[in-house]
Amino acid sequence: MSLSVYEIEEGAKLAPRFDLHEFLPCITMDHASGEILMLGYMSPEALQMTIKTRKATYYSRSRKKIWVKGETSGLTQHVEEIMIDDDQDCILLKVKVDGGASCHVGYRSCFYRKLKPGSGDDLEFTIKEKVFDPVKVYGPGAATH
Amino acid sequence: MSLSVYEIEEGAKLAPRFDLHEFLPCITMDHASGEILMLGYMSPEALQMTIKTRKATYYSRSRKKIWVKGETSGLTQHVEEIMIDDDQDCILLKVKVDGGASCHVGYRSCFYRKLKPGSGDDLEFTIKEKVFDPVKVYGPGAATH
Question: Are residues B10 and A144 in contact, defined by beta-carbon separation less than 8 angstroms?
Fold first, then answer.
């Protein structure tokens, strides 16, 4: 299927453009708070599963397999809205998260660090407070140190 | 520089992990409204320029060059916050946009299409209203049809 730029940008048909590795980046937002929870990647199968099951399903590039978010942690993401960008190479999911947290490190969002003002070579972050203990949710394997 | 998973995830130091092509995806959000405007990509140089100039600067993968957002359209993105995700392979920018619009197709956000409910093979979108005429902002070259 070959669509024109006009059809891709102005069209009403879903025509996702996966990258060379067959991945599509997916921005996931908390539907209630508007907080960005994570950036994941979807394979064609993961996108189909997400649309059909209404549970956010990604492709884990490190584990090389389909990953239904929450299958280990219980922090399932229930899909409320699916949006796509102009050139159809990025998905935006608006979700309701079971348990209210999302990030495996123990935060509501994967974006828990904000860069402090400045532009030197040794840039530092302000870090938010954790909302859960990942070892309790994911087991001892969750410890990264 | 080789950091442990713990240092990358829990550390207070900026240590961005660019992909094999030396790109880092960047989610850009309107600081005031919380609307997601776009997903762009940054090269190491684009990230440095963004931090130093406080104007969102991307790498255009199609044009293969650094792209200071707004240099053609005037829709400059002034950076209010820079956040990074757990494994430091995605940036989140919170910006104030000159002109109030961002997408070259004529919308406030690149995410102007929402998938209608359903899971058939012929999935369709609901499309938002445009907020500006791209031909007036970008010139006749902006027309994609």
Answer: yes
Domains of chain A: 21-138 (3.10.20.810)
Q: How does pLDDT run across B77-100, given as a tens digit for each residue?
A: 999 999 999 999 999 999 999 887
Mutate to test the interface with B, among A1, A14, A55 (most CBs of B within 10 A): A14
Q: Which residue, among A36, A60, A58, has the nearest Cα to A109 in the 3D structure?
A: A36
- B42 strand-pairing partners: B24
Residues A44, A18: Cα–Cα separation, whole Å: 8
| Closest chain B C-alpha to A12 CA, distance in angstroms | 5
pTM of the model: 0.90
pLDDT in tens, A16-75: 999 989 999 999 999 999 999 999 999 999 999 999 999 999 999 999 999 999 998 889
Alpha carbons B56 and B73: distance in angstroms, whole number:
14
Are B75 and B138 spatial neighbours (Cβ–Cβ below 8 Å)?
no
B9 in A contact zone (CB under 8 Å): yes
Report DSSP state, residue B103.
-
d(CA B58, CA B47): 7
Q: Using the beta-carbon criterion (under 8 Å), do A81 and B123 form an inter-chain contact?
A: no
